[in-house]
Design a protein that fits this description.
Structural class: alpha+beta
Number of helices: 3
Helix content: 10-25%
Order of helices and strands: EEEEEEEHEEEHH
Largest sheet: 4 strands, mixed
Number of strands: 10
Radius of gyration: 18 Å
CATH class of the largest domain: Alpha Beta
CATH topology of the largest domain: Nucleoside Triphosphate Pyrophosphohydrolase
Strand order of the largest sheet: 7-4-9-8
CATH superfamily of the largest domain: Nucleoside Triphosphate Pyrophosphohydrolase
Length: 176
């Protein structure tokens, strides 16, 4: 059996600043027709940046959809036409003021592929320098340094709930 679905029709139902939503009719592999609700997102990056003391930079910020403060590695949204590496360098500088050197690509992930096409590109870098952060208008966060081993333990114990951060921490262990 072929596992592919063919799009028959598509209707855009929402277009916002961060994502778009469309509802599609699809033909399933057995010939039946079904419906798919899809969130289109430009994608993003997540950066594990390690300082000379073996600590990673994290950010704490309030995440409105979850109604809580989350601990995450620096991350951000890809702008139209932006390359993931350029986005990683920009987001690290904007959120933490840090500049990395020799970024190592840790792959990409899809957080919720059942309804969203957002691909997040994961990177690891050593911090070369730290200056002032350049937060976006309306962005509020606190920067925190956590030793790598402690951060991995926190992720494994469920004390870090952000999926991109957990996966980046685990993949980091293969390249560090």
């Amino acid at each position: 059996m072929e596992l592919k679905e063919e799009t028959i029709a598509s209707e855009n139902v929402f277009s916002g600043k961060v994502f778009k939503v469309h509802v599609d009719q699809v033909k399933l592999s057995d010939g039946r027709i079904s419906r798919r609700e899809v969130v289109d997102h430009s994608g993003g990056v997540c950066i594990a940046a390690e300082d000379k003391n073996g600590c990673l930079l994290f950010v704490r910020q309030y995440r409105y959809p979850c109604k809580k403060i989350m601990l995450e590695l620096p991350a951000g949204k890809l702008e139209q036409g932006e390359e993931p590496l350029a986005c990683a360098e920009r987001e690290l500088r904007e959120e933490t003021g840090a500049k990395g050197k020799h970024f190592i690509y840790l792959g990409k992930i899809y957080g919720s592929p059942g309804f969203c096409n957002e691909a997040i590109h994961l990177y690891y870098t050593k911090i070369e320098a730290v200056g002032e952060n350049e937060l976006d208008d309306g962005e509020f966060l606190e920067v925190e340094s956590i030793p790598v081993e402690k951060a991995v333990k926190m992720a494994l114990e469920g004390n870090i709930e952000d999926a991109k951060t957990v996966i980046a921490l685990l993949r980091l262990m293969n390249v560090r």
